[in-house]
Amino acid sequence: MRPQIASRVAGLRTVTRQNFSTSAPRMSSPYHYPSGPRSNLPFDPLNKFFGVKFVTFCAVGFALPFGIAVWQTKKKSFL
């Protein structure tokens, strides 16, 4: 039984090596974009004003529907 297990493991190793070696050229990019953490974001989260901008963006997005609802309900009384 041990030779069967050894042959299966050896077969898996060659398949793994083969897949890894053939996938490397396909994964390399010819466009040379920067890679790494935060390189694909359209903003800089390390900027010192990022927190203020982010909180403002979220607060406006959350409060806007409530403000519109209040304005729609009060609109008839103003006109």
TrEMBL record:
Q: Which residues cross the membrane?
A: 49-71
A single Gene Ontology CC annotation of this entry is: mitochondrial inner membrane
Subcellular localization is given as:
Mitochondrion inner membrane
User: SUPFAM superfamilies this protein is in?
Assistant: Mitochondrial cytochrome c oxidase subunit VIIc (aka VIIIa) (SSF81427)
One short Pfam name that applies is COX7C
Assembly, per entry: Component of the cytochrome c oxidase (complex IV, CIV), a multisubunit enzyme composed of a catalytic core of 3 subunits and several supernumerary subunits. The complex exists as a monomer or a dimer and forms supercomplexes (SCs) in the inner mitochondrial membrane with ubiquinol-cytochrome c oxidoreductase (cytochrome b-c1 complex, complex III, CIII).
Q: Matching PANTHER family, A to Z? A: CYTOCHROME C OXIDASE SUBUNIT 7C, MITOCHONDRIAL (PTHR13313:SF0), CYTOCHROME C OXIDASE SUBUNIT VIIC (PTHR13313)
Q: Which family does the entry's similarity section mention?
A: Belongs to the cytochrome c oxidase VIIc family.
Q: What does this protein do?
A: Component of the cytochrome c oxidase, the last enzyme in the mitochondrial electron transport chain which drives oxidative phosphorylation. The respiratory chain contains 3 multisubunit complexes succinate dehydrogenase (complex II, CII), ubiquinol-cytochrome c oxidoreductase (cytochrome b-c1 complex, complex III, CIII) and cytochrome c oxidase (complex IV, CIV), that cooperate to transfer electrons derived from NADH and succinate to molecular oxygen, creating an electrochemical gradient over the inner membrane that drives transmembrane transport and the ATP synthase.
Can you name this protein? Cytochrome c oxidase subunit 8, mitochondrial
**What is the native source organism of this protein?**
Orbilia oligospora
